[in-house]
Amino acid sequence: MGIAEFNAPIAPVMRSLALPSSSMTKDGIGWGGFVGATAADLAERGFTGSGTVFDEIEYEGLDRTSLDSLGERYYLLDGDYKPYPACRWTHPGIDAIAAQVADHDVDPRSVEVVRVGTHENATVMTERRPSTPSEAEYSFPYVAARALLNGGNFTPADLTWRAREDETTLALADRVELAVDEEAEARYPEEYLVRIELETPSRTYESGLFGLRPLTADEREQKWEGLLDDALGPGTTATLRERIEDDDLPIEELLAPWAP
């Protein structure tokens, strides 16, 4: 751990969110994984590190950090598949919009203002004219606008240049207002919470606070099917599922759908 910590990338995440066109918005995950694997290999060969941050409990906050779960709880297993291809902080907002549309049959064309209340860090994602898929993923106004026009959904199609240049979308994105919600801020970073208000000429629809939700097993299957079958042809998901369950299948046959 000491070797990995010494060489780990410290990603300036908030700077990346403020400038998503930099294409540096993925938290250093790739290089972090490489450094972790390299550190383990070096340690196995006898290379020694200089200790870890856990050895320095005088650092502010670490005296309140419990290490009892080390070696017993593996946070990698807490990961899940994202429901939508956008920054995870926007997902509760998409779900809140979906609930408003479902409950009140809101016509997107009648919405004069979309108010988004969330934790402070999420309010920096203000790009209203995303020129790349990365900018679109990290634009709360754009994601909210597309979700409202889609009836409460956001898909890979919403990252295409056609979607990003859609005038109706851009006009609606201009009507999205971001603000800090006190309760959402108080519960961050343990929770990512969003509250949505849709203002129309006749009334304002207000949601409660929405948080993250993991995909159900059925939703994961639908996600895989949508991504794989669209790219590789109908039936690909079903074929791969059968092949994965065959323990004796050669790896070449498992990967055949991706072969040129």
Give the total of beta strands: 4
Structural class: alpha+beta
Q: Domains counted in the coordinates: how many?
A: 3
The CATH topology annotation of the largest domain reads as 60s Ribosomal Protein L30, Chain: A
> Can you tell me the CATH class of the largest domain?
Alpha Beta
- Following the backbone from N to C, one meets helices and strands in this order, namely HHHHEHHHHEHEEHHH
Task: State the helicity in percent bands.
Answer: 25-40%
**Proportion in β-strands:** 5-15%
Which stretches of 5+ consecutive residues score pLDDT under 50?
A: none
Structure description:
By secondary structure, the protein is α+β, with helices and mostly antiparallel strands. It folds into three domains: 2-78, no CATH class; 88-206, 2-Layer Sandwich (60s Ribosomal Protein L30, Chain: A); 217-258, no CATH class. The chain is built from twelve helices and four strands, in the order ααααβααααβαββααα. The chain has helices spanning 2-7, 13-18, 29-44, 91-104, 133-137, 140-149, 161-164, 167-173, 182-187, 217-232, 236-244, 251-254; strands spanning 113-118, 176-180, 194-199, 204-206. It has a four-stranded mixed sheet with strand order 2-1-3-4. α4 runs parallel beside α6. The longest helix has 16 residues, at 29-44. It is globular.
